[in-house]
Write a structure and sequence with these properties.
four-stranded parallel sheet; 372 residues; globular; 11% strand; TIM Barrel; Cellulase; Put_cellulase; GH; alpha/beta; 12 strands
Length: 372
């Protein structure tokens, strides 16, 4: 997951100031795809304009910790082309980054959302790069208010993760249907951060070409781990990370088997749901702790242990066709990024695991499989 960092973290030492270097390092670790912010609302409004973006947070190291300026095009196409040259596929998503002109507020209907994505995909298609797009995730962690505040304003009763509510389903089905009219061979979906994975079995989800589901140990059992750590309000409050430093690793080592089982149980249940619906899974944000960074007294060993367990468990279910090693697989997370052998070990496992044969019988899944 290179999210909005690919474009916003380009100052010296931020990790993406040299795309060639970052991509060469990615390939050297065995990865063959990235998931990035496409800024569709900004592309549609004025693709080549210099936009001023507000920071999402200043305690995390995804994106920029302060105001920043970006031009989406031609940078988006240049980046996709560099990926294509290295046989790295690109999954497009959007966190609907909020700029100082509040362009995101123009998204008031699913038709609006479809329209801005049509404009974005056409801008990529104009340079012959559409074949390098793996899939399009219309909104990150839909319908979360941090990433889709326009939806929350219209439907305040729909809470984070409740993609299965009627208003949400109507929106998703409408926007995807319109996009399929323009790009019938492109895989379309919304990504989710929802603890009740059985919802996949209770509803008709055939409008999704793939399940892009985010899974972390710390969220299981009603956020039990984070509650015991005392982690909350981690966007701008330094105290959140002070609590992680003090409590997270010791808590994990007190009963690692317990925390690991919370993770593996959820992965296995999610895999079971995917197989039941013959719909493949993709997970790009995962597996242990959500928020982490290079910081005094924070160590990566226990995080990597959980992430390796998550990857191996997901592979064992035969339900995933795209798997991230963590949501820290990015150059700015130096402590994670520099362990090249760890990355290679996991990517070897991922790339050598065959796709479940049953998914070849699902026409929607084939759209993704044939792009891999």
């Amino acid at each position: 997951m290179w999210d909005f960092s690919w474009l916003e973290r380009r100052w010296p030492g931020a990790g993406f100031e040299d795309w060639d270097k970052a991509l060469d390092e990615l390939v050297g670790r065995g990865y063959n795809a990235v998931r990035i912010e496409a800024y569709p609302h900004l592309v549609s409004a004025d693709a080549k304009k210099e936009w001023t973006l507000n920071e999402v947070w200043n305690q995390q190291v995804w994106g920029s910790p302060d105001l920043n300026k970006v031009c989406v095009q031609p940078n988006l196409n240049q980046f996709i082309r560099k990926c294509k040259e290295r046989d790295v596929k690109v999954g497009l998503s959007s966190w609907y980054r909020q700029d100082t002109e509040n362009v995101y507020q123009t998204i008031t209907t699913p038709e609006n959302m479809a329209s801005i994505w049509v404009d974005t995909l056409r801008s990529i298609q104009s340079e012959g790069l559409l074949d390098n797009i793996l899939y399009v995730d219309l909104c990150n962690e839909w319908p979360g208010d941090l990433w889709a505040p326009f939806f929350k304003k219209l439907y305040p009763d729909v809470q984070w993760g409740q993609w299965y509510k009627e208003a949400s389903l109507r929106w998703m089905k409408t926007s995807i249907s319109l996009l399929r009219q323009e790009f019938p061979d492109m895989p379309f979906l919304f990504s989710f951060d929802c603890q009740d994975v059985r919802k996949y079995n209770e509803l008709d989800t055939s409008f999704l070409d793939m399940y892009e589901h985010h899974v972390w140990m710390v969220h299981q059992n009603n956020n039990e781990f984070y509650k015991q750590v005392g982690y909350k309000d981690g966007h701008f409050a330094p105290q959140a990370y002070k609590n992680v430093v003090k409590n997270a690793e010791p808590l994990y080592h007190q009963k690692p088997d317990y925390w690991q089982k919370l993770l593996t149980d959820k992965i296995e249940l999610l895999g079971e749901c995917a197989r039941k619906n013959n719909t493949p899974l993709c997970t790009t944000e995962c597996w242990g702790i959500v928020d982490y960074k290079d910081w005094p007294l924070l160590h990566w060993d226990w995080v990597k242990e959980l992430c390796e367990l998550g990857v191996k468990t997901a592979l064992s279910t035969n339900s995933w066709i795209a798997i991230a090693s963590s949501n820290f697989c990015s150059p700015q997370f130096v402590g994670m990024w520099r362990d090249i052998e760890w990355h290679r070990r996991l990517t070897n496992l991922i790339t050598q695991t065959p796709v479940n044969e049953a998914f070849y019988k699902n026409p929607n899944a084939l759209k993704v499989i044939y792009r891999l």
